[in-house]
Amino acid sequence: MSVRKIIIDTDPGQDDAVAILLALGSPDEVEVLGITCVAGNVPLDLTTRNARMVCELAERRDIKVYAGCDRPLNRGLVTAEHVHGKTGLDGPNLPEPTMQVEDMHAVDFIIETLRKESEGTVTLVPIGPLTNIATAFRRAPEIVRNVREVVLMGGAYFEVGNITPASEFNIHVDPHAADTVFSSGVPIVVMPLDVTHKALVTRARNDAFRALGNRVGQAVAEMTDFFERYDREKYGSEGAPLHDPCTVAYLLRPALFSGRHVNVEIETQSELTMGMTVTDWWGVTDRTPNALFIGDLDADGFFDLLTERLARL
Ligand code: RIB
Ligand code: CA
């Protein structure tokens, strides 16, 4: 397998942090060209802080971290401190970052990178609201054809919404950005709540993180210990759902996942269903399929892969 060039667009977020660590623990398969931060779980100043803390936790101060959009395209920012804590990375007691944020704006980095790299060689991995990605696509539409594929965490269909009855957080925060991305023609793989709610950090899986005996394993165990309480109370889940790491795991082991190539459209008109990913799973319309919508995974295989890669950091 050749090394896959990726840009992670993120709003850390404990699950974002685990996705970044999974990527950094897999240098033979993915090359992180940069981490672009967006406002989402917490405001932009905290997402850029948290992304740098995670890079330093992995002892990868060489990774370039960029600050992007601090609010959605057309709506006010909705954050999720009730899930992720005041800092967005509550749980472990990590030191404040000392590495700098890059001067270049995240959107400019995305555009310049896609213009510079050979066509079809860069994969975008958005794991927060899609504001940065949509802004880049709107500002420089020609870069869309340069994208190998977009593998994103967002949306829900059978699992329904987690921030409203109809919509999942990343899409709900910036539905107009999501609409831009889903209607751009770029190849898309969607990791919705339908699959991420099956990637639960059970007690045994959390214990396996701690048993790694390294700083990363301990920190991830503390992150998921904090992050799980919201889903335990709300869903009665067995543990924290590792939403965002499903995207990186798909790049490493696509066979762990299964889904269907269907049409997905984004609700941007009705406040009642704003941000809903209207997914034609049963093919009842003549709308053109535009996304691989993932519905299931081999959860044990996913956690074996994740734990093995965290052990390398
Ligand atoms: O709905 C889950 C998504 O929202 C995840 O990306 C989580 O980090 C939050 O951003
Ligand atoms: Ca996220």
Structural summary, described in words:
This protein has about 325 residues and is of the alpha/beta class. The protein contains twelve helices and twelve strands. Strand 1 (about 5-10), helix 1 and strand 2 form a beta-alpha-beta unit. Helix 1 (about 15-25) runs parallel beside helix 2, helix 1 packs antiparallel against helix 10 and helix 4 crosses helix 5. Calcium ion binds near residues 13, 15 and 128.
CATH class: Alpha Beta
- What small molecules accompany the polymer chains? alpha-D-ribofuranose, calcium ion
Number of strands: 12
CATH-assigned fold name: Inosine-uridine Nucleoside N-ribohydrolase, Chain A
Task: Describe this protein with a few key phrases.
single chain, 313 residues, alpha/beta, Inosine-uridine Nucleoside N-ribohydrolase, Chain A, eight-stranded mixed beta sheet, two-stranded antiparallel ribbon, 12 helices, 12 strands, globular, binds alpha-D-ribofuranose, binds calcium ion
Question: Summarize this, please?
Answer:
This protein is an alpha/beta fold and 313 residues long.
Give the topology, please.
Layout: E1 4-10, H1 14-24, E2 30-37, H2 44-57, E3 65-67, H3 81-84, H4 106-116, E4 122-126, H5 131-139, E5 147-153, H6 169-173, H7 175-182, E6 188-191, H8 193-196, E7 200-201, H9 203-210, H10 215-235, E8 240-241, H11 245-252, E9 257-262, E10 264-266, E11 277-279, E12 291-297, H12 299-310
Parallel strand pairs: 1-2, 1-4, 2-3, 4-5, 5-6, 6-12
Antiparallel strand pairs: 7-8, 9-12, 10-11
Helix pairs in contact: 1-2, 1-10, 1-11, 4-5, 5-7, 9-10
The protein binds alpha-D-ribofuranose and calcium ion (CA).
Calcium ion binds next to helix 1.
